[in-house]
Amino acid sequence: MTLNPHALRRLVVFAVLAVGAFISVVPFYWMIVAATHSNDELFHSPPPFVPGGHLITNLKALEESIGFTRVMVNSLAVAVIYTLGSGLISAMAGYGLAKYRFRGRGLLLGLVLTTMMVPFQVLLVPLFQMMSNLGWVNSYQAVIVPFLANSFGIFLMRQAFLDFPDELIESARIDGSGDIRTFYRIVLPVVKPQLGALAIFTFMSQWNAFLWPLLMLNSEDKYTAPVALYTLVGGTHVDYSGLILGSFLATLPLMAIFFIFQKQFVSGLLGGAVKG
Amino acid sequence: MAVETVPPTANAGLAPQGRVRRRGRKSFRVVHWAFAGPAAALFVVFFAYPLCASFYQSFTNDSGGVQTWAGLAQYRRMLDDPIFWKSLYNTGLLLVFQVPLMIGLALVLASVLNNSWLRFKGTWRIAFFLPSITMLVAYAVVFRVLLKTDGGMMNQVLGWFGVSPVDWLNNPVWARVSLIGTITWRWTGYNAVILLAGLQAIPREQYEAAAIDGAGPWTTFRKVVVPQLRPVILFCSITSTIGTLQLFDENFVLTKGGPDNATMTPVLYLYKVGFDQMDFSYASAIAWAVVLIIGVLSVIQFRFFGSSERTAKDARATRSERGGK
Amino acid sequence: MSMRTSRRSALLAGFAALAVAATGGCATGGGKKAPAPTISSGAQAQVSGTVTIWSWDVAAKALKRLAPEFEAKHPGTKIDVVDIGYDNAYDKITVGLKSGSGLPDILQVEGPKMQSYIGTFPNGFYDLSTLAAQYKSQFNAAAWRTGSDDKGKVLALPWDIGPCGLFYRTDIFQQAGVDPASIKTWDDYVAAGVQIKEKTGKKLLVVDPTGDSTFGMMLQQEGQGYFKDGKVAVNTPEAVKAMTVMKQLSDKGLVDYEKGWDALVAATKDGKVATTPTAAWWSGTLTDEMKELQGKFSAMPLPAFTPGGIRTANNGGSLLSISAQSKNSATAWAFMQFALADSANQVSMLKNEGIFPAFDPALSDPYVTAPQDYYGGQTVFKTFADLAKDIQPVEYTGDYSKAGDLINDATTGVMQGGKDPKAALDSAAQQIASATGRQTVS
To answer: ipTM > 0.90?
Structure first.
């Protein structure tokens, strides 16, 4: 039996997907391998290619060295609060920018644009100084508040609201609904996909944030997961098994969130017009 | 599409213009700012101030703990700094080779994923998306080990095919190749997922119409897919361009900019100047050069984008007409 | 109307207040202008309250271990050791120094970096001169130098040092028929390397192309750093000599290039190289991570440049300093004395955490002079303890890191790019001079 063009096409598609997926996933497979071996075994030559039996030992060591459960809870709290706060602020600002014309709107848009262009590294010192003047050093508000206004989120939400029909808002007003009431009763429910996409995006960025939390948090019991994991990188000794196990486990929640909400994520990113 | 310019008339009739005052709308005016206010306040306090501070700093010299006005000295120094120019050259290489490679691959993946008969789309999608959600620390460790010259997995596998070990991170040429490879690994899936969403927005009928006209897959791709997808491709290109100009994570964890600055980028360099060498004035000057370059490139791309916006709008209009049928 | 105005002005006022609070009137982001504070020995303030320390890795572990004993000795004190991780520790410390805020009482800083900090933030630390004077003769002179400024003002107390020697594989040497005692100069070393390579196929040493310490070690042997009297000195005849040795090692194919610490460890563990010219603390890595190689290592002094020349240098080593932002400097100083200027505690840190003391009295402890099983009964710690006295104090300056980056480029250029040592160093000297605004020596 010869392949008909249709089957051949499918074969090619599968081949492309399989190769692509393999390349994407193989480092994760290696993470599982590394996370289940002892540090010693990892540096044998050749390195191990299949999972080993040290998972439980490594887990215990990780819990003992950095309090893994605690830092995961910290990370979760920070990321959730940030996601909710920045979602609300982005939605409000996006709505304001899309549906109202007020003085300084152009300036605000310009400011939002510039934030995307400036390398964050250069703002670290002045921003740090502010946090310290506010007495916020070693607090979660220092990790969260400065980035609540998120330019990507504002752009995304503004785009969503630009597509929102003005007539609906106008008719709500005629019915006597106030602006704020109109916003959360009528407008917000419609942009749920975009809000969902934004939430995933901001959650991920906060979850993986490293440099700023490192600068801000000064006590080990307040560390977020990336900061705590980095303490495993010593000057002369790196606990690889712990590091890899920890970062692998810390990636799992993100995988789960993306897996569950991926439809909202992709359609939301493109303005809600897409049914994934 | 997160990036778009507002047509000035988009909201006419809803919001009162500028200073025009009307009776009965008093509270309404506070409300205008009430929505954008929190974001504006946050931006001004936590962004505008550090921004001004760094701008001022770029005109000073603060060696020995004393800050003095230095005029344009830091900027002049930058013009004579071979490492700065090398970092720009490296960025140029990435823009020319890595960004098109990645967008191209993402486009291929997205079109393949868009096949209607394909099953387990969600699983495929997450497989491709995984690299972009990896924690930096994991990324660092994994690639340092995979790309080790001796006993690294990459060279082990190449060895099975009789290829002699490649010095992935220590040879200037291979280090660049590794950097391109690892950036592509991390971000292709992310772009593919976005492009896929764009592809799915193209109505089935258009493909069918093309098929009826006797168009093959390539013609369909050129005549139907590319024009419709243009805004999304441009979105991906713009974000990737900005990402490349601000590249820091990947080369920081893989090569620290080496060997011989072959993988140095402006932002990694300003970080080194600021934090290793503690010369924050010069670091600020480099940062502002980066801002300027991104600004210019963005304006160019926005122009480009602005004209294509009409195409997208037309497409959307066509779509809603069909939908309304 | 008035309602709106008041609401708006209230908003404005609140916003302005927030802005002022946040920026704190410090418009320029400049460093601290106040002079370095001093702890006066006479009015010894009460030792009580909490002292916070930033440290990392085994050093943090050591301090955490010692803290309860101190707290018991001084009721009412609390020592809070925070492990800030090594990789980005200096980002955190630099930002704190630069912004003049957010630092703890005590900071761990490595020697060369301490010199950079002293150069850049001369007022960022407490002046310990008066209090520390009593200990000057008891600490290693080279280490002491890294904690003081050019005028001898003491800003940090040495903790540990890294006297360098040559670790070597006795079995490989034997197999190649090389007598370790015959290696007296770097030329001997290169010759031995060639013989080892011929006989066993093994390389001689690992070099990290992204940041290697070998060249700096050699320079220090010759009694200089990257700077001399404030001038760039990386192209002196001594420096060219050292770079020429690096070139020979590379030209003869004796170098195994490995990037980063783990690669160095792995290469050593796999027996790819016969020697490791490095500091005493390398011993901790050998005993921890290469238990199976027990009895196969030994150590000797570094090869010299001329027969009878200096056979060691310093690599690594930290200090503790009190940040100028500390509100409890008296207690901080008390703890530093307790941990560092105390033979028993220093020896306990060598025993438990492998930290090699910069406090001389600790080096005559029986634990240091005793034969060691791992090295087949040789007194390796004693070798290093003896070498420590020969370490030449060198000038680091605040521009050490800047110079280091450029020197590294030059080293890579010579070893892997085939550049001429003299030419590469001349060009590096020019670049360092223009980046730092300093003159060159020659």
So the answer is: no
